[in-house]
Design a protein that fits this description.
By secondary structure, the protein is of the alpha/beta class. The chain has helices at about 5-20, 30-40, 55-65, 80-85, 120-125, 130-135, 170, 185-195, 210-220, 225-240, 250-255, 260-275, 285-290, 290-295, 305-310, 315-330, and strands spanning about 45-50, 65, 70-75, 85-90, 100-105, 110-115, 135-140, 140-145, 150-155, 175-180, 210, 255, 300. The strands form 5 sheets. Strands 3-6-9-1-10 form a 5-stranded parallel β-sheet.
């Protein structure tokens, strides 16, 4: 298959899957696009929004459009790691001999919905860490691979924080994107009412299977990126660090810790998916800038002054991107102190 044919096939698959999700989900086109982008890039997504905005429905609908197994975990304070990973249980064979047998937990699925992930204790939250990073879990000293592709979509409510356990920075960094689900506009709310209060059933067709997703992931990593575009991604990430010689004033003033190298990886991989989805076999600077907020908003840690002044992470990242553009455009060299 020629390069152009492969790009066209990706565009067709991407649009088909998005169309199936949009049969059920009203609005949120950007959120849907970013979720699909993360899935094809091989990352995980954290969805943040108040209850009732369709976060869980979006994920379930995506699973319906794929020929992949799906599990949902409702995180609660009394949930234990074994409830997620699984455990060894004693079973008896036909001869009466007893032995241990591993009982798989819900993490052994292609698509895992971690609903209200911040309601579980850190011990339970950490049960997802190895699976998200390595695609495998360790139980009883044995490493057990998870199905491929493996995709975690977690949700959390930003308003009700009492009795919750905010995700630690190390776990936040495992999510490729953090997406903020906004409240619908009035025309979208009317469409939601019409769809959900009438006696009609929407059927979501399965348009893609696991091997197809894996093959498209391989295609994404083959997309070339020019050195100046790569440099822009690196400069944006470095500009989030207040200790960097070229960091803008907003970073020095409001940021405590900047984004990790995973932030740069998220920018580049997401940009490659965005380029392919638009029918281009090359990454542009616009692709990098378009994904800066979802890729970095959960990776930039504000200092006390930033918290006290209520600095919005998205606004801050927008200013950092502008500064990074100016640095790369001027071509001047900057170094770590």
């Amino acid at each position: 298959m020629t390069q152009d044919a492969r790009v066209e096939a990706f565009v067709t698959a991407f649009e088909a899957l998005r169309a199936e999700v949009e049969k059920v989900i009203v609005g949120h086109r950007e959120i849907i696009t970013h979720v699909l982008t993360a899935m094809f890039a091989g990352g995980h997504v954290l969805l943040e929004g108040v209850p009732g905005l369709g976060k869980t429905l979006l994920i379930k609908t995506l699973a319906e459009g794929l020929e992949l197994s799906f599990s949902r975990i409702q995180f609660t304070p009394d949930l234990m790691p074994a409830d997620i990973i699984g455990t060894n249980i004693i079973v008896e064979d036909v001869d009466g001999r007893k032995h241990f047998q591993f009982q798989q937990g819900p993490i052994f699925a292609h698509i895992l919905l971690a609903d209200e992930i911040n309601r579980a204790t850190p011990k339970t939250q950490s049960a997802l860490l190895e699976g998200m990073q390595e695609g495998a879990v360790t139980v009883g000293g044995a490493s057990r691979p998870l199905p491929a592709p493996f995709f975690v979509l977690a949700t959390q409510n930003p308003i009700e924080m009492e009795g919750t356990y905010p995700l630690p920075e190390a776990q936040l960094d495992r999510f490729l994107f953090k997406l903020r689900v906004r409240y619908p506009a009035i025309d979208e709310l009317n469409a939601i009412i019409d769809r959900t209060t009438q006696s009609r059933h929407v059927t979501v067709s399965r348009v893609m299977n696991g091997p197809t997703v894996l093959s498209l992931r391989e295609l994404i990593r083959e997309v070339p990126i020019a050195s100046h575009v790569r440099d822009l991604a690196s400069t944006i990430v470095m500009a989030t660090h207040p200790s960097w010689a070229g960091s803008p004033e907003v970073s020095r003033r409001f940021v405590r810790y900047g984004a990790s190298p995973r932030g740069a990886q998220a920018l580049v991989l997401g940009a490659k998916v965005r380029a392919l989805a638009e029918g281009r076999y090359n990454v542009s600077a616009e692709d990098i800038k378009a994904l800066a907020m979802p890729a970095l908003r959960h990776r930039v840690i504000l200092n006390f002054e930033g918290e006290a002044e209520g600095v919005d992470a998205d606004t801050l990242i927008g200013q950092i991107v502008e500064a990074a553009e100016a640095i790369t455009a001027s071509g001047r060299e900057v170094f770590l102190r």
